[in-house]
Specification:
Blueprint lengths: L1 H90 L4
Length: 95
């Protein structure tokens, strides 16, 4: 009787261990899928952050180009104004 009881208990433990092993395999499979999805999300996030960072990194260059353009336009206006004043002074009748 003891041998039969021991055999039943060992059989139940073996079946239990088998179910636990299958469950662990299924859980690890889900973890693997979750990690793959997280990796895809991080890849998408990296692409979006690069798409945002690239124009932002060029913004100072654009601003400095506009500032230089405004400075050049003012210099040209000042030069033309000086020439105009010089021509007006030369063309004034002398008394």
């Amino acid at each position: 009787m003891t041998d039969t009881l021991l055999l039943v208990i060992i059989s139940l433990l073996a079946v239990n261990i088998l179910f636990v092993g299958v469950y662990i395999v299924l859980v690890l499979k889900e973890v693997r899928q979750s990690v793959a999805k997280i990796n895809q999300i991080l890849g998408s996030f990296a692409a979006v952050s690069n798409a945002i960072a690239h124009p932002v990194s060029q913004a100072p260059g654009i601003v400095s180009a506009i500032v230089e353009g405004v400075k050049t336009a003012r210099t040209i206006q000042d030069t033309l104004a000086k020439r105009k004043n010089k021509v007006e002074v030369e063309n004034e009748p002398r008394a």
